[in-house]
Amino acid sequence: EGDRFLQAANACRFWPSGRGIYHNENKTFLVWCNEEDHLRIISMQQGGDLGEVYRRLVTAVNDIEKRIPFSHHDRLGFLTFCPTNLGTTVRASVHIKVPKLAANKAKLEEVAAKYNLQVRGTRGEHTEAEGGIYDISNKRRMGLTEFE
Predict the structure, then answer these.
(1) How far apart are the C-alpha atoms of 136 and 115, rounded to whole Å?
(2) pLDDT digit string (tens) for 30-63?
(3) Which GO terms describe its cellular component (predicted)?
(4) In sequence order, what are the beta bridge partners of 130?
């Protein structure tokens, strides 16, 4: 039950067997296995220290890739089950409270489109914002480097 595209691709077959999530004690680093992608690697924390979040992520990805090489295509980038994640596969997001933009949804969408950003609710795709807090992330992943 859920996403019809994932169901059509048999991504939900044998649910929930063979899936799981691993995390550190502080829950600032998580690896989600076989949900939508084979591995979803997440680094997160409260506050504004994006450098620390990024360093933790890069260190972990490099350690994992030494043991399990990721599939990469010269033209498409990193290969994943979900085509929206092709390319860098990096979705960097912040939860941010923007009450004035939340009151003017058209303006929020205009600003997001101008800067190639995706706006989601705080509980992920197809959810509404709660208390004016949105999940804002990069929309583009193809044809860019991780730093772009």
Answers:
(1) 11
(2) 999 887 778 889 999 998 898 999 999 999 999 9
(3) extracellular space
(4) 133
- Locate the domains of the chain by residue range: 1-70, 92-148
Say yes or no to pLDDT of 142 above 90: no
79-119 confidence digits (pLDDT tens):
787 777 777 778 888 899 988 888 898 999 999 999 999 99
> Residue 121, annotated ligand binder?
yes
CA distances from 12 to 15, 20, 34, 70 (A): 5, 13, 10, 22
Calpha distance 61→70 (Å, rounded):
10
Q: Is 13 annotated as a binding residue?
A: no
Q: Is 125 annotated as a binding residue?
A: yes
Residue 20 known to bind ligand = no
The HSE-up count of residue 69 (CA atoms within 13 Å, CB side) is 3
What is the maximum span of the chain, computed from C-alpha positions, in angstroms?
A: 48
